[in-house]
Model the fold of this input.
Amino acid sequence: MAPARDTIFALSSAPGRAAIAVLRVSGPGAGEALRRLRRGARLPEPRRATYARLVDPENGVALDDGLVLWFPAPHSETGEDVAELQIHGGRATVASVLESLGKIAGLRPAQAGEFTRRAFENGKLDLTAVEGLADLVDAETEAQRRQALRQLAGELGKLYEGWRARLLRLLAHGEAEIDFPDETAQVELARRRAEEIRALSAAISAHLADGRRGERLRDGLSLVILGAPNVGKSSLMNALARRDVAIVSSRAGTTRDVIEVHLDLGGYPVVIADTAGLRASEDEIEREGVRRAQARAAQADLRLVLLDATTWPQVPAEVRAVMERGSVLVLNKIDRQRPAGPLFLDGTPLHPISALSGEGIEALVAALARIAGERLALAEAPALTRLRHRQALEAARAALERSLAASSPELAVEDLRLAMRELGRITGRVDVEDLLDVIFRDFCIGK
Ligand SMILES: Nc1nc2c(ncn2[C@@H]2O[C@H](COP(=O)(O)OP(=O)(O)OP(=O)(O)O)[C@@H](O)[C@H]2O)c(=O)[nH]1
Ligand SMILES: [Mg+2]
Done:
């Protein structure tokens, strides 16, 4: 049993002036706090918005009129008794109600994340759902919102718990084999177990081999603009961002640091980086800029290589060196020099634009959005969204493979146990104790 807890309260809506503010109180004292704010009135009907006058519990002075909701445990977001107050969102109103809550014995302001933490501890959310909730609050684009909502709804958690349940069963059978060695039965059981382990390992592998789709969708597809000095990289960056983020000048070698902006391209999140122009330079700072540009290119999901229409079809060697399959090739300054004929470089089509006049930018954005969509689109299967999950799954798969190669049933079982721990770690339930339940179910009831 969890120890008796403090009752916590917090402003749940955004701070600052607003029409409505939402305050929540969670814990054993929530009901009493709600009664005292209403001059001792009875608790309202559960989960029903009720119009109420709120008063200071010490002196009865009116604080505000608003709506109150009462969610008795365990049917609340945290699993505890929860009172929710919807009041007027003026700063003074919010401050006075918070102050009054603070005067009630046993109540204290919540720490960051404390409501969610309680929801996790009370089994309302597993860890993947907690992460989904955090992502949902942070989601800036439509695709991110959809992924986060799916994770919050438990899609990932269910997948991992399903695998864990299969392992639990395998483990139980493995233990039984060790305890009751009957040779013929053992051979058949071992064969079936190996088959199931292989199937599980393959399922985990398939899930891991998703091209980091889910993680990319969370973080944003990273796109780097590369090219020779003065081709208009910073101008393009500003055109895409629709604001002045990077310095533009006619002097070659203007940009030195990597400059980033976060954009929503057709519902997909993209982080665009502007970089220093690629060339051999005597200037120490510019050389560092070029080094940073190349380092960023190496990490990026997608390279946009910018070429200059006024010097086309010449392409400097430094620029050629960063082109790779899948790079998006863009020809800038077509307002100064209109290229003739179809535009291709090594079989890859070029997107003609003018960062200055805006010509071709819309078509380029559409092309980039299409690529982002292809790389990030949600698959039917739930997507892995964090490195933490990836590492645990890799460790689980390695343990499964070790188990298959183990020299004794004892060692094989040990590896299964490790694999299960890793899966349990993802959803936040590492207790191997429920093994006992399965053994009981599968072996004692005349299997
Ligand atoms: N005519 C024309 N000029 C452009 C275009 N795009 C950029 N320029 C000009 O080209 C010059 C260089 O532009 P920048 O955007 O600073 O080029 P950059 O590639 O970032 O240059 P570095 O940071 O020095 O590598 C500026 O004078 C821009 O106004 C374009 O489409 N047409
Ligand atoms: Mg620049």
